Amino acid sequence: MLDFKQNKNLKNRNLKFQRNRYSLFSILFFLFTFFATAQVTSSVDSTKIKIGEEILYTINVQIDSTDVVVFPEEQTFAPLEMIESYKTDTTFEGTKYRLIKKYGLTQFDSGNYTIPPQRIFINNNPFLTDSIKVEVADVPVDTTKQKMFDIKPAVEVKGPRFEWLLLLYWLVPIVLIIVIAIYLFQRKKRKDAAQKQLPPYEEAIVALKTLDNSQLLKENKNKEYYSNLTIIVKRYLDREVDEAALESTSDELITRLMMHKDAGSFDFDLETIRKLDSIFKRADLVKFAKLNQESGQAEVDRKTIEEIINETHEAVPEPTEEELLKNQEYLEKLHKKRQRRKWILGISGVVAAVILAGTIYGAVTGFDNLKDKVLGNQMRELAEGRWVKSEYGSPAVILETPEVLIRAEVPVTNASKSTVSGRDIFTFGQMNSPLYIMVSTMRFNQKQDIALDSALDAVLDDLEQSGAKNMIVKRDDFETEKGIKGLKAYGEFNVQVSDNKVLKEKSTYELLLFAQQNGLQEVLIVYQNDGKYAEEILKRIEASIELEISAKNDGQ
């Protein structure tokens, strides 16, 4: 009975142990799969700096496309101080993503410091980086060798340079708005005045009554009185009888009225024309010869003018319906003509303002700059835009480009016929585009020493098969800023765009090739030379190239 109980207890303990072991294995398996999908590493570009010098602290995170990563953004690097948090770069490695986050750190006191572990959250799960020790050294100053100089006197600082471009941006729109506002105001004013204008007869009678209420005669201002009186009758005749009345002299107007009577246009009484002529002559004597009139003569002339206006109003025939229709058509045509003239003047003013602004802008900043602003310049936009620094392929090529390179399909080439285990290609643009960038990395099945000259020949053959015709090849050694050596081929070629068509304009190219024991790295830049921005882009890409080198690489 005792043996039975002991066996039973032993079986229970074994069963419990197996369950605990299964649970432990499950937890370990979960942690292993989780850490396998998210790898976090950290590094610095240097462990020894001088006071105030920047340390570039980099965090690399390898994740799946669905993972959510949160990097530290606060001052969590004490005792070091964060001076800048750089934008996160993203690269693709097969089905994985690699996030590269960089921080600029510094310290202004000498000594040995430790960058504390940084907490990164991946899908709300915390990960800690390793702590890194750095040394901050003083800047030695040898006063026995360093020359001493007197304190320099104060230098007058010039004021800020006047920004003509900024002035144009504000001045031209303001001037155009003011001109348009004045034009609309004057147009509305003329339209309101035309709407308020009385018919010719009523206008003349109102003007005579206004003259009666004036104090010109009482103040002995005969010249002004007769000037107003003749203007009233001339304006009436101008609107009702002869459209040139206001612009004519007194004698010319009398002659034109006689012509209208002889032609039968208006049934004028000859005595009426004679009275008007007499008043005009008397008014000329008053205005120009300063003749003093007899007492009451001005009132008589004023009454005579009103009688002439009344007689003329009765003599003017009423227009027929056909004449009214023709007159309406004429007025509409005249209105459209005036509107066209206003539009032409307005558009001409705007064009003149734009041309003037463009001329000033071109004179200040250069006419090439003006042409680029108006017509556009893709190479300039790429050169002056925000560049992206990222790494591509394996072994990785790290460089800055105007745009992110896109993974491309790997073609079958001469290089592919060797013992290649894998190849990655990333491109921007097309071969016949203003700018074409291609980064290629190859991995070999086994480590081997590569003859760069032979490899360069194979790559140039592949480039020729891809559409580079009439190729001019020059060769030279190349070395990155960090001392990695390679080969450079450069020159010109014509791009073949179809089976029977080759572009006449030559494209400039530069091909950089680097080799190591287990890989080959290639950077190709093809551009249409514009004499300025294309070369700036080439030099900037060259200066930014960094390479991932294997531990046993001999640096060739």
How would you sum up this structure, described in words?
This protein is of the alpha+beta class. The longest helix has 45 residues. The chain is elongated and about 125 Å long. The protein is 43% helix and 25% strand. It comes from Aequorivita flava. Keywords: Membrane, Signal, Transmembrane, Transmembrane helix. This is DUF4381 domain-containing protein.
Distance between the termini: 81 Å
Q: What is the strand tally?
A: 22
Which regions contain 5 or more consecutive residues with pLDDT less than 50?
A: 22-37, 551-556
Helix content: 40-55%
What is the averaged pLDDT score? 78
Shape: elongated
DSSP helical segment count: 12
Largest sheet: 8 strands, antiparallel
Q: What structural class is derived from the secondary structure elements?
A: alpha+beta
Radius of gyration: 47 Å
Q: Which percent band covers the strand fraction?
A: 25-35%
Protein name: DUF4381 domain-containing protein
Transmembrane segments: 164-185, 343-364
Organism: Aequorivita flava
Keywords: Membrane, Signal, Transmembrane, Transmembrane helix
